[in-house]
Amino acid sequence: MFYLRRLAERASRQFTIRRRLPSEFGGGQIIVSPDAALSYLRPNLASVDPGLLSAARFLVKPGMRVWDIGANVGLFGCAAAWKAGASGRVLLVDADPWLASLLQRSAQSLDNRTGYAPIEVAICAVTDQPRPVRLKVAERGRASNALDGLGHTQMDGTRETVIVGSITLDALLEASFVPDLIKIDVEGAEMLALRGASRVLKAKPII
Predict the structure, then answer these.
(1) Which residue from 58, 76, 75, 53 is spatially nearest to 66, judged by alpha carbons?
(2) I want to staple 122 with a disulfide (CB 3.0 to 4.6 A). Which of 27, 93, 98, 184 is the partner?
(3) Residue range 112-140: average pLDDT?
């Protein structure tokens, strides 16, 4: 079973699929990939990560401005765009340039449908100070990508390392909007991100 899973993970690298969000999140199409996690091979996105969808369901209200830090393929952020509605705004942030390209395609797809908040994409890591950082692309799913020195055993090694730019959450305010809600999932760099968020935290967003 282990070897079959490993074979599937390697065979599905950079393979993309169009999937529809559950109807309660508008049914819009987003671009996903088993290269992020093999669970994205499932046709029903509701079964991929119920926790993320539950967070969007209960936390995001109409008109909310949402930041999704460590967006991966954007399951939470795109669901949040429906819950926030046309009067809301959503920012998807991911350090992996390949995943960010999927986010941009999903944002364009949802922009063509009514009822979704406008979605912007930022391609960068988020830490406690602006600087170049090394991003380790996980040998297994890209959902486990991590900054050099961080991460966990689910990475099962590193297939490649890329140097990317890093900014602070406070710096995001200069190019984006003040968030009402922030979801942060950056594989061990969460405290680094919050150390660079003094101005953001003064706005008292839900985190």
Answers:
(1) 76
(2) 93
(3) 95
